[in-house]
Design a protein that fits this description.
The protein is an alpha/beta fold and about 250 residues long. It contains eleven helices and six strands. The protein has a domain of about 180 residues: 3-Layer(aba) Sandwich (Uracil-DNA Glycosylase, subunit E), CATH 3.40.470.10.
């Protein structure tokens, strides 16, 4: 860790911007007086342990995630009229399951929480029917500022905001990710179609990613299309839940 700190000091002299994850690792080490940590896996084991100190570390990490996000000016979304506040992810940092959507809408921007509008209410209903307490998963978005008119985020905006999402991915380290819609799908597998990839596993960077339709898409359907879409999403969520139980049978969503 000492060598890492020296390396970072050299980078700071050169005015090279450090990854948020490296900054947070050092903040964590200093705050909790951690000894030498030689791997990210070793650090994650400490963070995810079931004890009061690890719980304090997770709280510290989440506050830092929000702090870095609130200081972010990497794209113009943060200064657009549509954005009144940034919306960090929310939930359990211990969860092996992470849900990732596109970006905040009107209700999310107003309340500062992800998935709290009509689409969010539908998502909560799906989770409840699966026996999952929403507070026992982690829910986030690719971009954390509301795009104008709820439009799809531009590629440059997603790339700029990736520093924030990558920080969440690093310290939550989910085993399974449900990608809600084409934007998170393309984050993990560029140039993909949600219509073709929905329901098909993508294994990348150590994550099992299950692409499915965004709850807002379900709400736009009618008649037979609505019924089919609901069953497609239900099947995808069940696949994801089965994979989590296979990989982390000890984790309880209740």
């Amino acid at each position: 860790m000492a060598d890492l700190e020296n390396f970072i000091k050299e980078l700071e002299v050169q005015e090279i911007q450090l990854p948020y994850s490296i900054k947070l690792m050092l903040d964590l080490k200093n705050e909790f007086n951690l000894k030498e940590i030689y791997s990210s896996n070793g650090l994650l084991e400490i963070i995810k342990a079931d004890n009061p100190e690890s719980e304090s570390m997770r709280t510290f990490i989440y506050e830092k995630i929000k702090e870095y996000l609130n200081a972010c000016t990497d794209c113009l979304l943060h200064s657009s009229d549509s954005c009144t506040r940034k919306v960090p992810g929310e939930g359990c940092l211990n969860s092996p399951l992470m849900l990732i959507g596109e970006g905040p809408g009107f209700d999310e921007d107003k309340l500062g929480k992800p998935f709290v509008g009509r689409a969010g209410q539908l998502l909560t209903t799906i989770l409840n029917k699966l026996g999952i307490n929403r507070q026992k998963v982690y829910i986030s978005n690719v971009v954390k500022c509301r795009p104008p008119m709820n439009r799809t985020p531009f590629v440059k905006e997603m790339k700029a905001c990736s520093r924030n999402l990558e920080l969440e991915l690093t310290f939550i380290a989910p085993k399974v990710i449900i990608a809600l819609g084409s934007v998170p799908l393309n984050y993990f597998k560029p140039n993909s179609s949600i219509m073709r990839e929905r329901g098909k596993w993508i294994y990348t960077r150590g994550f099992w990613v299950m692409p499915t339709f965004h709850p807002a898409y379900i709400l736009r359907q009618q008649g037979k299309a609505l019924n089919k879409t609901k069953w497609d999403v239900w099947e995808d969520f069940n696949k994801a839940l089965a994979k989590v139980r296979e990989l982390c049978p000890e984790y309880s969503f209740n």
